[in-house]
Amino acid sequence: MNTPNTTYDAIVIGAGAGGLSAAARLVAAGRKVLVVESLDRVGGRASSEKIDGFTVNIGAIAIELGGVFEETFNLLNVPLDLREPSPATVFRIDGKVINVAKGGWGMLLGTFTKQAAKIGTKFADARAGDLPEAKMTTKEWLAQYTKNDTVHAIFRNLCAAIFAANADEVPARAFLTYFAVKGAFKRFGFCPRGTVGLWNDLADGIRKAGGEIWLNAPVTELHAQDGLATGVTVMKDGMPTRVHARTVISNIGPRATVDLPGGEAFGREYISQAHSVPKPSANIVINFATQTRLVDVPGLVTFGKTRRLCNMGELTATCPELAPAGWYQYVAYAVPIPAIGDFDEKTEIEAGLQDLRDEFPGFAQAKMLSVRVMRDGWPAQRSCAGFDMPQTTPLANLWHVGDAVKDYGDGGTQACAYTGREAAKHATAHLDVSRAEVTV
Ligand SMILES: Cc1cc2nc3c(=O)[nH]c(=O)nc-3n(C[C@H](O)[C@H](O)[C@H](O)COP(=O)(O)OP(=O)(O)OC[C@H]3O[C@@H](n4cnc5c(N)ncnc54)[C@H](O)[C@@H]3O)c2cc1C
Question: How many CA atoms lie within 13 A of 337 on its CB side?
Fold first, then answer.
């Protein structure tokens, strides 16, 4: 076993959105940080790959501007290489494109139900703090006001697009917290080098500020003593290497963290919670390209009545360099039923593809780039909004980051960046206290 002499202020397990955000904040605060990542690239589920000359995103494509995510990049003076589509989002219902930037949701829902004003009032109530009880689903909440199929389809597809779950799986409280209270996902952009470009930039910023990032370096064991994590064993250049740290931040999710050898230190009750509380949700990502444009929309399109398809974007409208010349490149998302729990992959993929054939006759001539099912250990969300675990753990110097420990009703990479900020705050406070104790 290799045992370097260095003791790091923080070891971050995993270079996903949450892990890199935490690392960036800690190095910006002058801490000695090591990020260890099992893959040969950074970005986790928000990364990208090359397929036949196309840059294809694996997970996140639409990165929110103007929040904690952007602030993290600013801390290290790393430019945020995003191009904003305008309009950002439209709906496509019964073959017609509806731009909600002009009349808002009220206008959209008003086309289909007389109850639009009532639903609008309930959004205002939510903003004022009057939220439904946590057990009511979004579908049940909406059914109180309308039975209209198109309105239900729109809410289902919003749940699917943002939370990767169905309206009967997402708590109404989480849905309203996201859309009405946080007012999230209004401004976002796409990275012209694929989303991995952002993480490569942030990783370079972390290294420039003195942080270390080891790739191809899976953590194989957690070490803890007297209620504190003391470090990890990492495979580095094929050799088990024992690394010491004053704090540990885990980006691999509570379940995988407690399942590491050494995870017994969390205690039986917490281990059981880490297995049962987070509800991983699934989606199906369909990447394809055409030589004739299917839909003339620069941002994301959310659909009305579909089987499984929820939203889609033609990324080359804003970032033509993602595809070889002459090609239009799209990503479409389908969410299985159920999204939380077991489903038949073949049936669910076929339902999503059939939706695309129905929506766009030109899809028949598309070049298929990839169809990926994100589920289980590599899911769309490690926990659906409303079912997250806390970031703190029974080990006083170990915190989780990422999409199993999001703030209530939060979603996506912005939510992960927020967990990174919170973990960095906890770690800094812990390091300050332990340093003060040593001095005394
Ligand atoms: C298809 C899809 C579309 C999405 N679209 C959007 C979008 O448009 N906008 C948006 O904001 N969000 C989107 N999301 C959500 C977003 O991608 C995720 O919420 C986010 O990337 C999760 O990041 P994370 O911090 O939880 O880390 P993860 O991505 O889970 O990264 C964890 C890292 O830990 C590594 N690791 C695992 N085990 C070990 C180990 N033992 N040792 C070392 N390293 C280890 C993994 O390899 C991985 O790199 C989408 C997700 C999916 C799947």
Answer: 13
Q: Which residues surround ligand 1 with Cβ inside 6 Å?
A: 13-19, 36-39, 44-46, 59-63, 218-219, 251-252, 256, 283, 285, 374, 380-382, 401-403, 412-414, 416
Atom of ligand 1 nearest to the CA of 414: 11
Type of residue at 78: V
Q: Where are the domains of the chain?
A: 7-46+53-77+194-278+384-439, 100-181
Strands (E), 147-282: 188-189, 212-214, 219-225, 228-236, 239-250
Looking at the structure, give the CATH architecture of the domain made up of residues 100-181.
Answer: Orthogonal Bundle (1.10)
Is the distance from CB of 300 to CB of 99 less than 8 angstroms?
no
Q: What is the DSSP letter of 103?
A: H
Q: Residue type at 385?
A: A
Distance of CA 336 to the CA centre of its chain: 17
Q: Which residues contact 267 (CB under 8 A, 6 or more apart)?
A: 394
Backbone φ and ψ of 292, nearest 5°:
-125, 135
Distance 435 CA to ligand 1 centre (A): 33
pLDDT in tens, 73-88: 999 999 999 999 999 9
Nearest CA to ligand 1 atom 36: 14
CATH code for the part of the protein at 7-46+53-77+194-278+384-439: 3.50.50.60
**pTM for the structure as a whole:** 0.97
Hey, whose CA ends up nearest to atom 27 of ligand 1? 16
Non-local (6+) Cβ contacts of 257 within 8 A are 13, 222, 250, 263, 266, 274, 393, 398, 400
Max CA distance (Å), the chain: 74
Q: Whose CA is nearest to atom 33 of ligand 1?
A: 14
List pLDDT tens digits, range 202-252.
999 999 999 999 999 999 999 999 999 999 999 999 999 999 999 999 999
Contacts of 104 by beta carbon, 8 Å cutoff, 6+ apart: none
Tokens for 81, please give them. Answer: 């290489």
**Closest ligand 1 atom number to CA of residue 401:** 25
Distance between CA atoms of residues 324 and 316, nearest Å = 10
